[in-house]
Design brief:
- By secondary structure, the chain is mainly α.
- The chain has a domain of 56 residues.
- 65% of the residues lie in helices and 0% in strands.
- The chain is built from ten helices and no strands.
- Helix 5 packs antiparallel against helix 6, helix 6 packs parallel to helix 8 and helix 8 packs antiparallel against helix 9.
- The longest helix has 18 residues.
- The N and C termini lie far apart (44 Å).
């Protein structure tokens, strides 16, 4: 059951979830979150590629460990993008025909801007396959598009508990931190995303710009 809450209650809940999500991601830049929301910042959200290679066989955890090692060592953007696509392939592999069908229907619903249906489908996915990180990540994206930041953060927390290196979720977390006016923790999330994916498109520039604002502030 959903009920209406005041704007201050929603913001307070969002801040609490943001703190919990930062902890789930393995870091927390500061104990207290910003006291007031800021105007909307850039809302870049890392999406999986339109097509991905076939997921490699074998243990997904071992495959991801190897791929993330290769991602850090990538000598150029082209190589990094190829490795990144293979990481997405592992994350997107649900191991369930039912989940695959529901994900396809979710994409169709999102393409038609039917977010209510998309969330219903994603609700079913996370219930069927709670360990499937892309179910949570995709639902977080839809909640973000609806500006339901508390729900988006709750889902990002689930993603990062299962896969702390999920650079898409880390960028999403940073984006929401900026939206609610917490640039310090936004920077922490972006830096973590850049740490696991050093060639993440546009992220180095974003970190530099935000660091100038955050690190340059007087104490």
């Amino acid at each position: 059951m959903r009920w209406k809450r005041s704007g201050s209650d929603v913001l307070a809940t969002t801040r609490r979830l943001a703190a919990a999500t930062l902890v789930a991601g393995g870091f927390l830049a500061c104990a207290a979150l910003s006291a007031s929301p800021a105007a909307a910042q850039d809302t870049d959200w890392v999406e999986p590629p339109a097509s991905v290679p076939k997921a490699p066989r074998g243990d997904p955890t071992r495959n991801l460990d190897m791929l993330f090692g290769a991602l850090k060592a990538a000598p150029d953007d082209t190589t990094a993008k190829a490795v990144e696509d293979r990481i997405w392939a592992v994350w997107l592999a649900s191991g369930s025909d039912t989940v695959n069908l529901l994900m396809a229907r979710t994409k169709a619903a999102i393409d038609k801007d039917d977010r209510v249906l998309a969330i219903r489908l994603l609700d079913a996915i996370v219930e069927i396959r709670p360990q499937y990180v892309e179910g949570w990540n995709r639902r977080a994206t839809v909640f973000f598009l609806q500006k339901d930041y508390a729900s988006a953060l709750a889902d990002l927390r689930q993603v990062l508990r299962r896969e702390p290196r999920h650079f898409g979720a880390l960028v999403g977390l940073g984006t929401i931190m900026q939206e609610i006016g917490d640039e310090t923790n936004a920077l922490a999330a972006y830096r973590r995303a850049l740490e696991v994916n050093p060639r993440l498109k546009g992220m180095a520039d974003k970190v530099r710009t935000l660091a100038d604002k955050v690190d340059g502030r007087p104490i």
